Input
Amino acid sequence: MPGHTDVGIAGLGVMGSAIARRLLRRDRVVRVYDIRPTAVAALTQDGARAAESPTLLAATGVVILSLNTADIVQQVVFGPDGVLSAAPDGVLVIDMSSIDPERTREFAERAAKLGAGWVDAPLSGGAPGAERGELTLMLGGEEEHVERALPVLGAVASRLTHLGPAGSGQLVKSVNQVLVGCGFAALAEAAALVRAAGLPPRQVLTALSGGRADSALLQEFFVKFADADLSPTGRVSNMVKDLEAARDYARSAGVPLPVTTTVAELHRWLAAAGHGEADNAALMHYYASLEVRP
Output
């Protein structure tokens, strides 16, 4: 049986890698899987152990997913070499991806039939928050599964809220992404105004701090946007996915989202223009006179 420090991680993008490194620093035994050998190699150099398939991650007893879409989650968990493809009884899957709430409920029910647990734990705070252990997590799942997940998730998060059954965390993550995505669009427009006026962004941030426009988003991203800094903290393509998921749920609930729809289309334009893998600060590409630096 695996020790209480063992964790498996499938998906080693920006977020998955940050989560893995944080857990390694907290003395966890971390086994990792990704379809990209270079991503696995980078983590093994930091002390992680490579798994040749998702099936082998199940030996840890607790497996974190950090994947891009519900279809990929389905393949990695339930596919022929998936996490739950062999003797899954007692395995706990913690899905930190951002996917559709309904698909999450389906996955949780399917896992339960195999004797496995499922917690959806989408996050806010980005890779920097994971590295500091300060993520905000929105949790969905059965109480017993959430309780089992807390010792692992507590290593990467400072705020964890259990919101209800499976899918609840994903629904609240959609709310989060509506606020963040629309906030990014507003930040980009404000940053363009500041640059056009030749004002120093850091002094503008100081002037806005403490007023009604202040927020964690402003503090973390305003200067980054004003500097047109594309150092990776999140991808345009992921924002497209998340905003479209929010729109899909809103349609099913009969809720109009006019602002979110506009912002989603702005991000879709960026993705179509070849900036899908760029940081969210690529919104500054709309202001053609601005030099955007990698």
User: Anything to note?
Assistant: The chain has a mean pLDDT of 93. The longest helix spans residues 168-197.
